[in-house]
Every structure is written in structure tokens, then in C-alpha cells.
Amino acid sequence: MRAIRQIAATLLALAAMAGADAQPQRIASLNLCTDQLLLLLVPRARIASVSDWAARPESSYMAEAARGLPLNRGLAEGVLPYHPDLIIAGQFNDPSMISLLRQLGYRVEVVSVPRNLDEARADILHFGELVGAERAARDLLRDMDQRLRRIAARIAGKPAQLAAVYAPNGVTVGRGTVLDDILSHAGLRNLAAERGVSGYGQFSLEQLLVAKPQWLILDVTAEVSGGSIAHSYLQHPALAAVTANARVVAMPPRLSECVGPMTVDAIELLVSQR
Question: How close are the terminal C-alpha atoms of the chain, in Å?
């Protein structure tokens, strides 16, 4: 019996070693959202390359963590010099590039890009399995859930106020977007969604004036980019009539481009202003 136990223990140890050997050690990411999840879950030593978007503070929640890592600009030729054993792409990356990488013998996994926190749960767990970071993925979700419960308790019983998202060229966001989910979790009603907008649409200044939203969520890339006709649209004098009676919040793109802990940060930003 003792010998059987020793054999079983040896087999378990060998299985564990095999699992460790199978864990990808040189992971490359071609997409901003997968970049950030990779940086959140995996030790820096196992990251071969991320896209250049990951290192841009205006767009990336993980820009500091990405500093100094090889950047690939989302292109196949950018990752090949680093001999990755796993390449992760998003569903909107170029299919022909993904096909080429696979033809060259590289393991490429294409992951979906979640549009809300509910979708993100399964995606984060799946991502954790792909990169050998299951425990880190579970811990990340546990932390996010704890924060979301605190937010829900904080806004419980408060009326759902009307909010409008306004970006350059009068662009707004409706149902099925990350920002729509952020507004909902912050206890706000999305004007565009209530007007039937799905995805991205446009709102004229006149429509805003008539709707009289209690909140105006502005795209702060205007502060970063500046100078363009599109961004000057946000400086239109007519907006003063809206902002005079609305709570104005600047939403950094790094909090609303992808879904994850940055989404919870965005919700907390809005709730802090209530």
C-alpha cells in the first residue's frame, strides 16, 4: 500500500511538472484589451510583446506596467522576432494576419472582446486558462465583484438620473457599449439608449438642449488631441446651456475602452460625483 501511495505521489508530481512545462512562457498580445488583461494576470517575465497602444497613457489602463516591454504595433512582423509560444489576438484583429501566423506554425488564440461586465466574467476566466493564470483571473474577478457590491450598496435607493455621453462630432453611445454598462452600474439612465441608439450614434446640440440631461459625460480625448474640428465641437457655446444645469464628468478613454477593473474604476468615478 505504501508503495502504491509513493507511485501515485510521483505520478501527481510528474503531472504537475508537465503542466508547468506546458504553461506559455513567451506570450505576445496584438490588441489593447488583451494587452491589458495580459499585464494584469501574467508576470512580466512571461510577456514577450504587447501592442503599442498598451504603452499610451491616454488609452491604456496599464501603461505604466507596459513601459519597457517590446511593442509590436498589432502586426505579425512585430511579434516574430520574440519567438512567442502563444499569440493572443482580439476578435477584430486582421483575420488574414492571424491565418498567416498560424501557417507559420505559431499558436494563435483569438478571444472575444466583452461589451459589459457580465460578458467579461467568462472571458477573463477563459483568458486565465489560456495564459496559465487561472488563480490570478479568479482573484481579479473576486476583487471586481467586491467593489461592485460596495458600489451597489452606495447607490441603493437613489433615483436613476438621466445622463448623456457626448464626444467629438456629436458622437454618443447607446445600448451594447461599455459606457452604457458603466452608466447602468452607476445608477444612471443612458439618454441615447432610451432614444433607441444601439452602439454608436450622433446627437445634435439641439437634441441635448431639449432632453436636458442631468449628467453630461464628456470624452476627454479633446484635452489630449485638441485643435481638430471634431474636438472643437465640444467647445460649442450652445453646450454651456446644457452644462449649466448638468453635472459634467470627463471620462478618460483608458477607463472605457475595455472591460475589466478599469470599468469598475469608471463606475466609481461617476458614483463619487453623485
Answer: 66
What CATH class does 158-271 carry? alpha beta
Going residue by residue through the chain (274 aa), what tens digit of pLDDT does each one get? 444 344 334 333 333 444 444 799 999 999 999 999 999 999 999 999 999 999 999 999 999 999 999 999 999 999 999 999 999 999 989 999 999 999 999 999 999 989 999 999 999 999 999 999 999 999 999 999 999 999 999 999 999 999 999 887 788 999 999 999 999 999 999 999 999 999 999 888 888 889 999 999 987 654 444 445 555 666 777 777 788 889 999 999 999 999 999 999 999 999 999 8
In sequence order, the 6+-apart residues with CB closer than 8 A to the CB of 83 are 26, 48
Return residue ranges of the chain for CATH 3.40.50.1980: 2-113, 158-271
The CATH homologous superfamily for domain 2-113 is: Nitrogenase molybdenum iron protein domain (3.40.50.1980)
* Residues whose CB falls within 8 Å of the CB of residue 187, separated by 6 or more in sequence, listed in order: 155, 158, 160, 161, 271, 274
